[in-house]
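// run 5 | inverse folding | seed 20
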């Protein structure tokens, strides 16, 4: 009986280990092996490249994800988006600041207060309708809210924070 119990515990730990080691190895954040698509800097506790945290697509996919279907002002019809909630990403990085600056590749900037982030929204979407996003369709990363789910997401401020072609985030005081 004791052997069976230890076998079950070993199986559970073995199944959970890939989830916890996907971004962390021996208390250090792993480095991206693919093309870097997101760089986070500023008041963060975890880094993997100097004083920044760099992510490739697989690293973002290793984090807990959310999916929802919604319309947007910029696309036709209802689209399904999948990505990591911004709050989850920031929590994993151990941030100590209270302001998030999100930058697009064309230097468009949107500012957020960390206190305004919901646990599940917005997400940093890396898929639209089950496919990776390209620069032509606002990717590879897009900050997206579930606009259709609540009137609180249907306002000018939220729309201006919907940064597509997101490539960097800075955490400020």
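// decoded
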């Amino acid at each position: 009986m004791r052997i069976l119990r230890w076998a079950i515990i070993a199986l559970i730990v073995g199944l959970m280990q890939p989830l916890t080691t996907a971004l962390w190895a021996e208390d250090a954040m792993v480095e991206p092996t693919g093309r870097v698509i997101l760089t986070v800097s500023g008041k963060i506790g975890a880094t993997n490249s100097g004083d920044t945290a760099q992510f490739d697509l697989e690293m973002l996919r290793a984090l807990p994800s959310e999916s929802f279907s919604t319309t947007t002002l910029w696309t036709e019809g209802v689209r399904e988006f999948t990505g990591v909630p911004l709050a989850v990403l920031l929590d994993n990085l151990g941030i100590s600041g209270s302001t998030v600056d999100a930058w697009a590749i064309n230097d468009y900037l949107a500012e957020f207060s960390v206190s305004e982030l919901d646990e599940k929204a917005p997400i940093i979407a890396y898929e639209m309708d089950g496919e990776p996003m390209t620069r032509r369709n606002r990717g590879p990363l897009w900050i997206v809210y579930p606009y259709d789910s609540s009137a609180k997401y249907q306002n000018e401020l939220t729309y201006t924070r919907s940064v597509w072609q997101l490539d960097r985030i800075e955490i400020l005081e």
